[in-house]
Amino acid sequence: MDRISLPIALTIAGADTGGGAGIQADLKTFAALGVHGCSVLTCMTAQNPAEVLAVMPSSVDFLRHQLQAVFRELPPSAVKTGMLYSADLIHTVAEFLKDKSLKLVVDPVMISTSGAKLLQDDAVQALCRELFPLASLLTPNLDEAVYLLDHPIRNRSELSDAARELYQRFGCPVLAKGGHLRDSVQAVDILWDGSRESVFSKPFINGVSTHGTGCTFSSAITAFLSRGLSLEESVGQAKEYVNRVIADSVRIGSHYALNWFGQH
Length: 264
What we know:
The chain is an alpha/beta fold. The chain has one domain: UDP-N-acetylmuramoyl-L-alanine:D-glutamate ligase. It is built from 8 helices and 11 strands. It has helices at about 20-30, 60-75, 85-95, 125-130, 140-150, 155-170, 215-225, 230-245; strands at about 10-15, 35-45, 50-55, 80, 105, 135-140, 175, 185-190, 195-205, 250, 255. Helix 2 runs parallel beside helix 3 (about 85-95), helix 5 packs across helix 6 and helix 7 packs across helix 8 (about 230-245).
């Protein structure tokens, strides 16, 4: 009997004990979208949808061994990075990936939904200098884009300018996510690839407080890239997927969780 062959995608990120974000969200997304997911753990976190109580980073040596183990037998066609935490871990990831032929989606995870800091201060420079230039796509949310550019982004026009400015600064395509824009009636994301702007927009889904949407969005883009879709197609399909999993959210205890395995 002929077996189905699945593309391989890798997430390099932190673990979420609550199961709603980080590597757990990434692997659920990969599985839901028909991709075999591998994972390399940068940090263990003690967290739930309301708070992050503690973070314990991987050692550099163990991080490198995890990367080696995946690439020796299960080389991915697309990789995403999430929480990388420290300059040493970022340097290790960048050094390992710099000579690899693959699609790399970098989600510059800096602050959790609950407000906890997930990236050390001295790691930001390493992220910008070493990892961003390797990226096939950078996916900052509004707060991350503001932090990286050090100026406010107040409307859709400024979001578009931010995507271009980040592209010029780091030399990689940018998806500037505008879900937190105050003057917008829709969740607008703007992709600038250096020559063309693409706008992806969906109505806000009210009445649901979600956790892990950024992780899910970037891992969905990675999944579609691993399946051979173009960058613009991958972002468009991922936007549709994220909109559905938010709309179909389920209750878990006193919180909500994305419905990764709903009817998609």
